[in-house]
Structures are given as structure tokens and as C-alpha cells.
Amino acid sequence: MTAATPAVLILLGPPGAGKGTQARVLEEKFGLVQLSTGDLLRAAVAAGTEAGLAAKAVMEAGELVSDEIVINILRDRLAEDDCAKGVILDGFPRTTVQAEALDTLLAESGQKINAAISLEVDDAAMVTRISGRYTCAGCGEGYHDSFKQPAKDGVCDKCGGTEMKRRADDNAETVASRLEAYHAQTAPLIAYYDDQKVLQGINAMGDIDAIANALAEIVEKAMS
Predict the structure, then answer these.
(1) Active site includes 75?
(2) How far is residue 161's CA from residue 165's CA, in Å, rounded to a whole number?
């Protein structure tokens, strides 16, 4: 890779693995841009691009946006100036068909996947981590049944509010089901990028800073 070729990194990991948090750290440290499928679609629709209008029509019909439309939106986005140093893809590709289409797209501009980084988690611990989360309804301060309870039971440390809320889908059964679906969906992608010799795995169950340091080391090598 020449210095002028923008890096393309993929973050793989189940809901709650910390992809969003870590992507923001990488953005700031390396001047990269995080691109998630949802954000890409919303921005393209708002901008009224050709691909965005196509996506809008499909979504208004209540249908799923095709891989072809997503790839066209991604093509437009990668050409923008702020992507000059590189991007972090979060949530795309989800299938090997999408991965192959992405490879074809990148080849058009001499780019490639520099690293596909899998944030590896312990499923049982993830169920505990996610299902125990709750927030103050007043100020949004986050708490956890096991790891971070307010000093006074039921009273927010930050604003003194007494109404706490949990996300409806943050229950053990739903979390376990999401993890199972993620592993089934992502297993072929793991194999795909392993075959391409770009797969890297890191333990995402530890300290956030330690995870960030491990990620930074991988990204630094991938961009060199």
C-alpha cells in the first residue's frame, strides 16, 4: 500500500462488544472515518444522491435496501475528501456476498482491506454485561446491576433523579439470541477474511484502554 492509498479497516463484533466506542478512538488517533451502514443510508437519502434516492424508494416501500445500492452509496462516500486517510467499516459487510462486492469496489481505486479486526467476546459474560445495564431517565447516566450501582439505591448520583429505565431488548434471553444470530451470520466472514490473511482477533472483554491499545497496534501496522 502506498502512503496515498486510504486504508480500509473492518470492525467485526456482536452488539455490546464496544465497536462504536473503539471506532471513535481510532478515528481520533489515526484520522480515520467510521462508516456504518445506517449512517451511510441516512446521509445519502438526506443528500438526495442518485443512490440515496434509490434507497429512499426501497425503504418507503418497506423493503430491504439491496447490496448493489449500499455498494453504490459506499462508492460515493469513499470518494469524499474526509476519507483520504482511510475508513473503518462497522456493520458492513455482513455476508460473504457483500464482502466480495466490497473487494470489487475497492479494486476500482486500487484499495483493499488492510485488516478485518474481530472483537472477540465471552457470550455468557456479554449476557451479564448487557442485560444488567440501566440508565437514569432524567439525565441518561449509565448504571449496571453488577458493575456500577448508584451510591444510594434508586437515586441517580449525577442528578438525584429516582426514575431508572432499561432498554426493552436488554434482557438475557434477547441478548443471548442476538449473540447466537451474530455468530451464525459472521462465521463465514471470519473464514473469508482469514483466507485473505487480513483477519486479526483481539479479546474485547478486558479494560477499554487495553483494548484500544491492542487495536491501535493492529491499525498502525495495517496502515504502514
Answers:
(1) no
(2) 11
Q: Which of 56, 75, 133, 166 is catalytic?
A: 133
Active-site residue, selected from the candidate residues 19, 29, 56, 77: 19
Question: Exposure pattern of 2-27 as b/e (b: 16+ CB <10 Å)?
Answer: eeeebbbbbbbbbebbbbeebbebbe
CB 105 within 8 A of CB 92: no
- Residue 178 falls in the annotated catalytic set: yes
Q: Which of 42, 94, 112, 166 is catalytic?
A: 94
- Identify which of 97, 117, 169 has the alpha carbon closest to the alpha carbon of residue 7: 117
Pick from 174, 6, 18, 7: nearest CA to 90 = 18
Q: Which of 85, 152, 167, 221 is catalytic?
A: 167
Identify the H or E element spanning 88: strand 86-90
List the chain pLDDT tens, one digit each, 224 residues: 344 589 999 999 988 888 888 998 999 999 999 998 888 999 999 999 999 999 999 999 999 899 999 999 999 999 999 999 999 998 899 899 999 999 999 999 999 999 999 999 999 988 988 889 999 999 999 999 988 899 999 999 999 999 999 988 888 999 999 899 888 988 899 999 999 999 999 999 888 899 999 999 999 999 88
The C-alpha cell that represents 68 in the structure block: 448493489
CB atoms within 10 A of CB 202: 19
**Residue 138 corresponds to which cell in the numbers above?**
432524567
167 tagged catalytic: yes
Strand partners of residue 136: 164
